[in-house]
Amino acid sequence: MTDYANEVANDLLEIGAVKFSPEAPFTWASGIKSPIYTDNRMTIGFPKVRENIYCGLTELIKASYPDVEIIGGVATAGIPHAAWVADQLKKPMIYVRSKPKDHGAGRQTEGANVTNHKVVLIDDLISTGGSVLAAAKAVENEGGNVLGIVSIFSYELLAGVKNFESANLTFKSLTTYSQLMALAVSRGDLAADQIETLNEWKKQPEKWQAN
Questions:
Q1: Which residue of 89, 185, 192, 196 has the lowest C-beta tally within 10 Å?
Q2: What is the pLDDT of residues 122-145, one digit of tens each?
Q3: Which coenzymes or cofactors are required (predicted)?
């Protein structure tokens, strides 16, 4: 059986989707500075990488949410992966906009009718969970039952865990910050002082918040 978690973590490092910069941190939209940046949008440009992802996500959903009826993609990065997973599982699909359309029917979800159906949403990564939890709320507002969320990668931030607990939703990720770090260390991608910085950031990212 393929170890998709390790395969995908290695893929992300190999294609340069993950960048480390402890000395000159990246700034996220939330205002938090981070020594790591993950761009999973790059994965769709690599056929074998995206195959590992959709096969891994398919197995993850089968194991964690076997009763799923509809696969949903969170705009925009989750949409292509949701399409491949929906095809693998032979399930209907939806995608969820970041906000409702300002014309026509004003819908926020497109595709299958979610009313009284069990939905699993796919996003590219989980940090604090804000955008994907908003998507889940949109699906629920249209009558769907969100079983949970799956993603390619999770930063494993405490804020994200708390936000999902508050929303009474679970999430599963194909690979995680801890797995990625362990692999990066074994590959020799990081110096000892960089490893320490990255570990400290995960424990208390709020200390890096931009002014």
A1: 192
A2: 999 999 999 999 999 999 999 999
A3: Mg(2+)
